[in-house]
UniProtKB/TrEMBL annotation, chains A, B, C, D:
Start and end residues of each 4Fe-4S ferredoxin-type domain: 77-108
PANTHER family, per database record: CYTOPLASMIC PROTEIN, CYTOPLASMIC PROTEIN-RELATED
Source taxon at top rank: Bacteria
Protein name: Four-helix bundle copper-binding protein
Length: 123, 123, 123, 123
């Protein structure tokens, strides 16, 4: 789990710093709304994901799953903008470690459905 | 979407306030580690979820899905502790609105897998 | 205190929404680095300030003081950019209520200095 | 500035982890309301302070000043509870580096007063 915390904290730091300095200073496609939003969104969910793991939350897997999604979207956006290799790498690494954390987590709603209806759900 | 933002902000406020005042002051089962963690975790993911929607994030559905999971776990914990009806209601309402937001969101990874296997798009 | 919490939550919401939609979509002076940074910084400190008050923190006055500073800087920036009256008003109102909360707070360090110079306590 | 960012991130991590695991598991004076609140407040303002510096905010000094206050209060609380040396050290170190960052910052309100009334203000 510590690897995943480190990856989230690293990705948070890189995305926030790059968005607020590199991207804002360069402008153009670097401040295209969808791109800058994804970078700031990514920084925030990485922070939240790290905080869930630091607090040994029993539901951290759900947040890690969402974090992997957002990191993947941000990595794709950074790759298409170009000139942001540090971000691409931090996001891809964070997405990988978060996916692993999420894969061992069974959604509570699925568990509740299973408990109620004896495995009838189709997720 | 505004309904979901309102529900997240309300749930964040109720959980944080109750955890830091009601629960800490009563102690006993109210400060049982799993319970207090869930309340603070819930407050945080609701805040993050609201922030994603306020920023019109294209990936807010992933975070709303995680938020629904955490709210459901927190509602169950509050219901079993008792004496926390305001929290139970705020969490259940937030879980419902977030589930609706999440249900219209197709995970990026699923899209990527689909794209790769069918070769239908080039992202 | 509830008035100040409301003002902080309102200012957080207005600044975050305007920065991530209005400003990013218009570009130009709306995405000038110092301006967009101040709007996002303001949204964050307002959130933190509200969280301190919701948790009945004994040191909320220190954070409210910082929040008043940041809100004032953000209001000035929004006023000079123009076209952002909703933000200017939310920031100025939040700065006022936070200044009131801060004015009744005596910095701990000042108290410690006073304690040391008078030899009154041993911390 | 990087030293101060590192100190804030370290203090955030130590306080959050200790509050949510060590303190909640031990209970007793470790979950006394004022103590646990200060630890969670400290974790949050350290996170906010680090985020202001990562984004090269022009008003980070105001937040660093508040952070130093909260860290000092948290360190005192941890020292009196005992058994929390790692927290005491992280908080004291963070308070020191934040005080240095804050000392070079002139409050905006003081500057505005000075500009308006030619140095007549009494802060």
């Amino acid at each position: 789990m510590q690897d995943c915390i480190d990856a989230c904290q690293r990705c948070h730091e890189v995305c926030l710093r790059m968005a607020m300095t590199h991207c804002l200073e360069l402008g153009g496609r670097h401040t295209e709304p969808e791109h800058l939003r994804l970078m700031l969104n990514c920084a925030e969910i990485c922070q939240t994901s790290a905080n869930f793991m630091l607090s040994q939350s029993s539901v951290h897997g759900a947040v890690c799953g969402a974090c992997a999604e957002v990191c993947t979207a941000c990595a794709d956006s950074c790759a298409s903008v170009g000139d942001m290799d540090e971000c691409v790498q931090a996001c891809r690494h964070c997405a990988e470690t978060c996916s692993e954390m999420a894969s061992s987590y069974q959604p509570r709603m699925a568990r509740r459905d299973a408990g109620t209806s004896a495995g009838a759900h189709s997720h």
